[in-house]
Amino acid sequence: MVQIPNTPAPTMPPAPRSVPTSADVARLAGVSRATVSYVLNNAGAVRISEPTRRRVRAAAEELGYVPHAAARALRAGHSRMVLMPTLPVPAGPLYSQFVHDFQGALSSLDYTVVQYGATGQGDDDAARAWAELRPVAVLVAGPGLGPEGVAVLKRSGARAVVTLSPEAVEGARAVPLDHADVGRSAAGHLYARGRRRIGVVVPAERGMEMFSAPRLAGAREALHGSDATVTELSLAYTEESAAALAARWPGLGLDAVFAYNDEYAMLLMRALLDAGLRVPQDVAVIGADDLMLGRLLRPRLSTVRIELPSGRELASLVDRAVRSPAAAPESHEPYGATVVQRDSS
Amino acid sequence: MVQIPNTPAPTMPPAPRSVPTSADVARLAGVSRATVSYVLNNAGAVRISEPTRRRVRAAAEELGYVPHAAARALRAGHSRMVLMPTLPVPAGPLYSQFVHDFQGALSSLDYTVVQYGATGQGDDDAARAWAELRPVAVLVAGPGLGPEGVAVLKRSGARAVVTLSPEAVEGARAVPLDHADVGRSAAGHLYARGRRRIGVVVPAERGMEMFSAPRLAGAREALHGSDATVTELSLAYTEESAAALAARWPGLGLDAVFAYNDEYAMLLMRALLDAGLRVPQDVAVIGADDLMLGRLLRPRLSTVRIELPSGRELASLVDRAVRSPAAAPESHEPYGATVVQRDSS
């Protein structure tokens, strides 16, 4: 319906000259720019008469002047913006809920959460791009932030850089979240159920490696040295891909599968059932994320529940780090994973 | 585990004095601030010798200076930031995928998408807060942006304000997306299947009204003047709420339900089946969104597919609007809805 141009965007013409600045407000009100700044930013320490304040506010109103967030942050020495890079894949239900809760909790502490969505940048370039917005705190859920990126952010005024990852990055506060533990728990559970030929689904979609690689590694680790085998299974999130995998299942000789997460597990379990396999008698199936939908299927889907800090907990941690950037980071137990056994395993 | 303070955040101490500015770079390199700005922003029109350029870059590197996005935007007359307010509810699968695609398409056109997450602001306050970030374009998926908000954004340099909503807002480009049509389609389908006592689910969760109200209104509209009745049914997204509704189902005397979307439909259909009702013989069930998971259930879930512009189409529309802010808005057919009948209705 619409054409996507293949050429890069040309240089744009300058913005219309009508964007009002604080200088325009100052001119109209007959005061200095400093006075405009004091009045509109409610700088309490400066004595300015009420009539002058009214004149400045009226001029700003008349011109439709909006202060510049970054300029204000520069004057104040900090912003109230907490920046989160978006994930390289569409957010799943668990992450969407977490972001929603985190955002609500930070809003009630008077911060604004901004999710930053540029893709395809190198690690240091990404941190530099985030730094240009001058956030007071940065929360990074995926990998890809190194010590140099942390240093860039801190030099640009970020008081807290928090990572949700298994390994600590120098200069950042780590909330230790270990996806390998999801794979370890799932594989350990299937082994305890007597299964020895265990498949592990790796989504075929791009950008999932940050989660799927540690889950596979954790499964391998849990079964290392045992009498069980681990077979990597590529699966795209389509009915066709699931049907194809189910069709060649008998040749694989697997008696169990850890299907990456509940969505892939629901898809694969349906295809296995449709192919005439019995779950769990022929194939035990376990997912991860503990979505409610997994409880609606028959057999009910077993899953691995991931222990996550709540949005409120994490917002409070970010707030404390912003207030006391020099305080020693609090130590956390690593967040782990718990098997929820239902009828599919 | 952690304490959430009840008091508002106190004034914070000023940022450490070590945040380097362009003045620091200028001092170290022995040049003017203007020269620093020209060099670091690659202003091609200005002649500056290569040794000077090198000295400025080395000084910026040594100090760890990062340009200020907003200051740069101010000089350039525009930013490359496209701002989207986040929804007041956790994003569902359809919206997550859309945001992911839109962001990817805009990234390839050299824009950055920022999702802005403050909540609980009045309409004009929200637009003013967005304006402070000086976005070049704003895409609003929900309601709540009025003509005054559009004017504030445009005065602050936004070249395009695009709304995804049934009604046009003065000054904004409307991509006409009509949730009422989802309700009209669902109710019309159930009527055509011979059902006359039709329930319409309204989620009990807060913040869903922007979608649920037009869907209910559309269903009422489609059946207005017919021999069918419409009964509003409140349902929370929990198994308990669904079981309670299923338990009182016989007393309601309904022979069909439009269950808001596929997730609520899957939840309610499971509870109805568990309560001994037959789907579709006793109750016809239809959802909306055409999620793949609805095809995994038995009976397969009927649904309403919502016609949405693709992320690429919308990105291209935003880009054209940014390049030609004065061009007349292109007109669109309203995006509608299509029933996908499967086995549950």
TrEMBL record, chains A, B:
<keyword id="KW-0804">Transcription</keyword>
<keyword id="KW-0238">DNA-binding</keyword>
<dbReference type="Pfam" id="PF00356">
    <property type="entry name" value="LacI"/>
</dbReference>
<dbReference type="InterPro" id="IPR046335">
    <property type="entry name" value="LacI/GalR-like_sensor"/>
</dbReference>
<feature type="region of interest" description="Disordered">
    <location>
        <begin position="325"/>
        <end position="345"/>
    </location>
</feature>
<dbReference type="InterPro" id="IPR010982">
    <property type="entry name" value="Lambda_DNA-bd_dom_sf"/>
</dbReference>
<feature type="region of interest" description="Disordered">
    <location>
        <begin position="1"/>
        <end position="20"/>
    </location>
</feature>
<dbReference type="InterPro" id="IPR028082">
    <property type="entry name" value="Peripla_BP_I"/>
</dbReference>
<feature type="compositionally biased region" description="Pro residues">
    <location>
        <begin position="7"/>
        <end position="17"/>
    </location>
</feature>
<protein>
    <submittedName>
        <fullName>LacI family transcriptional regulator</fullName>
    </submittedName>
</protein>
<dbReference type="Pfam" id="PF13377">
    <property type="entry name" value="Peripla_BP_3"/>
</dbReference>
<feature type="domain" description="HTH lacI-type">
    <location>
        <begin position="20"/>
        <end position="76"/>
    </location>
</feature>
<keyword id="KW-0805">Transcription regulation</keyword>
<dbReference type="InterPro" id="IPR000843">
    <property type="entry name" value="HTH_LacI"/>
</dbReference>
